[in-house]
Write a structure and sequence with these properties.
Elements: H1 7-22, E1 33-37, E2 40-44, H2 52-69, H3 73-92, H4 107-117, H5 128-145, H6 153-160, H7 178-208, H8 220-228, H9 234-240, H10 249-256, H11 267-279, H12 286-297, H13 301-304, E3 312-315, E4 318-325, E5 330-337, E6 350-351, E7 354-355, H14 364-374, H15 376-381, E8 391-395, E9 401-405, H16 416-423, H17 434-447, H18 452-455, H19 461-468, H20 472-498, E10 501-502, H21 511-516, H22 521-528, E11 538-539, E12 567-569, H23 574-590, H24 593-612, H25 616-627
Parallel strand pairs: 10-12
Antiparallel strand pairs: 1-2, 3-4, 4-5, 6-7, 8-9, 11-12
Organism: Streptomyces pratens
Protein name: Integrase
Length: 645
Amino acid sequence: MGKPRGKGRKREERERFLAALANPVQPGGIGPRVVQVPGCLLVVDPAEYRCSLLAMQLADEWTEYVAATAITAQAENYRQAIDRLCRYVDEALAPGAEGASLTDPDLFDTLVKWELSLPEGYAPGSARPHLIASAVRVLIARRDDHPDRAVAPALARLARGPVLLGGGESTERDEFTRQEKRAMVRAAWTSVRATRKRLEEGWALADQGRHPEQGSWTSVPDLLWGLAHKEIDFDDLRRFMPSSREWPLELLEFTAGPGMVPHPQSARMQLARRLFASLYPTTRDLHAFRVLLMDTTGYTSEEVTGFGEADVEFLPRGVRLTLLKNRAGQLRHRAFRDQAPSDAPPAEDDVGGQLTVDWPRREASEVVRQLLDVTARVRAKAPHITDTLFVSAVVRANYKTLFDRWHPTAANGGRFRDWLAAVGVEVKGAPHIGRLRKSVKVEKAIVTEGRIDASADDHTEETFASHYAQGTTLRIMSGRTIATAQQHWFDKALDRVDGPTVVAGTEDIGQGVLEDSGLSTQEAEDIMTGQLDMGVSHCKNPYQSPYSRPGELCAVAPLRCLECRNAWILPTNLPQLLLFKAHLERLRTLLTPQAFSRLWGQSWVNLNAVLDDRTPQELAQARKHIEAGEASLDLPLAAHTEFDA
């Protein structure tokens, strides 16, 4: 739209563009092409380029494409693409740029060079060059589809072919943290209560007023009464109200806040918007309802803002909503049940680093009821809007009022980032509402214990895996799960490797030595009296065996004692250990190495480790006990039969 100019020139330009919007230029005509999106006007003026014919052809397709598709944010991308191409053509073909046209096949090389030059203005890996090149190709292909608009065949083939640039790299937005989301939801409830209170007080003041001509043009109740009863409009404020220097303190504080004074040049506009905000919800107010609906339902922003009054059915305990997802073309009827008071879960909290995902009173029905109540007066003034409950009242710069559907990307303090700043919620990263949707999906994934089919109940599993499962929370949860599993199996491995506890020394092992080694007084006494002798070792507690159910006597002693941490080996057990080694050596001759390792490998390793720690004198003394018939090994009958499976 050119370089910045004085305020008078800007005002003239805006009026010219508004006139062009009201009376659009016909295709092929002379004049600026204007598109209105929430918050601003987008303009392509072919007269600003030497290649005005090319700019006109692309701009005609742009305005029709925006009208046909109802795109908003993407409309600016197409405008930028036209501007980038036309400026390139002006320089590349000067002084012959005036003849540039989509009917000229010689433009082919210029388009290719322009497309290949796009990455020069962006960081490596940026997706913008591909996006801009694709936008121009869409407009050219659209023009070629029109029967009355000629396009050179070479240019048409280029437009329909693959883009010469890579798609670039994109970074998935991460979800809001649990703390950020919790603060956001709490701020949303606070904001809803504040909005309701403001509107109730505004209409209560309006009931106390009268017509400003009978009362005062500087009385807040009288001004509210006039606006509420349509007896005055904001043009009357400019005509009949005195200068802001003559306003009473009450009116100044109402306009700018306690202790504040509005700027004289903008005081009337500030007052007009403050008066309107006392009677009707503003654009900023509705962000809180969207946050709460996304939190309570788990659905996307476009779905929770895309149902009207006819799509709401209140149930005895909940609400049924008809939700439309335009991008996927899906229409769903979903019931959201209220929680019974006795079923209400505890408040969310982080206890010892553990996450509790349940929120108290996550009731969509309550949010919908309050939204219906807050927007009732606006919907009454905009009866043509039936497909959404998100409607708001706006005072434009020309003092005209508008009751229309909600535009969450509108400028002048109406964006999501502005709402976050107003309610005092700080977030790291981009303040994008899509991140809240990811936070809700993460909660569902945690509650459903990671089952993708349950988490992806409103889209495909492929979408969940590629778009939602990459969030930080789920990665941390996955890492924690893997680490826990690894630690579990590592601990089990240690249990098997550690085996029994060995008490070294002479045969005179007293009860005090056992207690010092970690046994209780009763356990030490039972071992010393032989009550816990299991054959090749003593057992600390044969009724808490890892190989049997708790409370039942160990069923595998003494065959698995050398693999059990309950086992305690004393010097008096040495003869039985030597006899058990002889038993295992016999089995090694009967079984294949693989079978022996699978069945007795750990016992064999632990047994040799225990015997290797004994002195030759101790081993010789133990063998003398065996030869004298003073030691025996009692094994179950099954221990003498092995099957090489």
